[in-house]
Amino acid sequence: MKGLKSIIISALVALVMTSCGGGDVSVKYDTISSAQLDSASYAIGMSFGQMLKGSGIDAVDYSTIMKGLKDYSAGNAKFTDEDVMNIINRYMGSLHEAQEVAKAKAQEEFFAKNIKEEGVQQTESGLQYKIIEAGDTLLKPVVADTVEVNYKGTLLDGTEFDSSYERGEPAKFPLGNVIQGWQEGIQLVGQGGKIKLWIPFSLGYGGQAMGPKLPAFSTLVFDVELLKVSKAPVTEEAK
What we know:
Blueprint: H1 2-18, H2 34-54, H3 62-73, H4 81-114, E1 121-122, E2 128-133, E3 146-154, E4 160-163, H5 164-167, E5 171-174, H6 180-186, E6 194-199, E7 220-230
Antiparallel strand pairs: 1-2, 2-6, 3-4, 3-5, 3-7, 6-7
Helix pairs in contact: 1-2, 1-3, 1-4
């Protein structure tokens, strides 16, 4: 978390040094055209926005950000560097807590409705699933096995964040190396089976943002085809 906050502060300072806001240009150079300046300034703003989104920071006042940029450039900043770090530290903690509360409420409401849909079941851990095709029930994976799958991952609003179909090839990995929701869910079908998973964030990535498409506290939805199960070698202890 400290590293993330340092990146945020560094990016903010860099943005201040190179950007303009509200039509004000900090420094003008004869060899830089207005078009180039505008494009670069907009790109810097986009880059900063991408950094904020990727860091899970979704609640800011952009007009106040611009005021901070201009004040810093003019040498009129009202906070010291130490103040900035402390303020961001406190805000990141408060924001994280607020996001968890909001996402937990939305997840609870969705799961309460979803469990009433035909074919949807729920495990003791809170994972919801629907078996589309059972597959070979004599060849189900366990955590120690390696699986080959095709899948599509979306958020509750339908935003797609990952897909083996888009990459054009299935994924292969030890089942024990993925999130708990996958470990539990994929064991419910056999080779050749298809399953839909609704994974609560407690069984997914929790409060960790996994880039701009996968914010912290995300409820995950996966459509999975279990193409192949490679059984783990039997150890001497298991014999």
